[in-house]
């Protein structure tokens, strides 16, 4: 196992961060989670500072706990969650903070199948009936993804989730100069993942920026 895969060493490049997440998710799927960085010494070490290696912007769904499905612990990831991973100014500010201040090398947009918010947006498109209250705001922001999926001949809500995840990742880069500059420089990459509730697997559905390892032979340590 290479040094940057140690639970105590934070990845510093997009490729390293992506590998750490993949390996953690594979352990979770296989039922061999290690639950790293969850002890008292780790808690004490984080009192005065944090050094997360990724920011995960995901749906608020109770079945989508980022630290669990990627087998992570305290201080490993900066997490932002809204229903349907809908963006607003607070979300963009949080993501810019994670990149500009905390220096995370990877942004993850995390959607999941059977998403209630995407299902509600699909229902609105199907029926023309708009939900009341602030749920309407969620539906309005997701509707373009539902329509884009339909233009591509996709009618299943899970396919719409994938489209929404892709579009959300693209909009983050388009909306934030700080994030787009970090991606252009190679300091940060953005990935879209779609999580399967039954299997526990997070599949890559989009990527912006390089996830390739550096030319240095990482396996050599």
From TrEMBL:
Keywords: Lyase, Zinc. Pfam families: Pro_CA (PF00484). It comes from the Bacteria. It is an enzyme of class 4 (lyase). It catalyses: hydrogencarbonate + H(+) = CO2 + H2O. InterPro entries: Carbonic_anhydrase, Carbonic_anhydrase_CS, Carbonic_anhydrase_sf. Its EC number is 4.2.1.1. The keyword Lyase applies. Belongs to the beta-class carbonic anhydrase family. Catalyzes the reversible hydration of carbon dioxide to form bicarbonate. This is carbonic anhydrase. It comes from Arthrobacter koreensis.
């Amino acid at each position: 196992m290479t040094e940057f895969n140690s639970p105590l060493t934070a990845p510093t490049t997009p490729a390293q961060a992506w590998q750490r997440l993949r390996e953690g998710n594979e352990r979770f799927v296989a039922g061999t989670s290690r639950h790293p960085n969850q002890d008292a010494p780790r808690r004490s070490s984080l009192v005065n500072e944090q050094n997360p290696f990724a920011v995960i912007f995901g749906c608020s769904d109770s079945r989508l706990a980022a630290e669990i499905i990627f087998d992570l612990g305290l201080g490993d990831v900066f997490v932002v969650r809204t229903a349907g991973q809908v963006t607003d100014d607070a979300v963009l500010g949080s993501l810019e903070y994670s990149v500009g201040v905390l220096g995370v090398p990877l942004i993850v947009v995390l959607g999941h199948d059977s998403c209630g918010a995407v299902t509600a947006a699909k229902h609105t498109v199907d029926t023309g009936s708009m939900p009341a209250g602030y749920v309407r705001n969620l539906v309005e922001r997701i509707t373009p993804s539902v329509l884009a999926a339909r233009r591509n001949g996709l009618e299943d809500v899970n396919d719409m989730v994938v489209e929404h995840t892709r579009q959300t990742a693209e909009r983050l880069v388009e909306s934030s100069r700080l994030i787009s500059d970090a991606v252009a420089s190679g300091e940060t990459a953005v990935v879209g993942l779609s999580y399967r509730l039954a299997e526990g697997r997070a599949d890559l559905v989009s990527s912006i920026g390089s996830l390739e390892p550096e030319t240095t032979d990482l396996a050599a340590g």
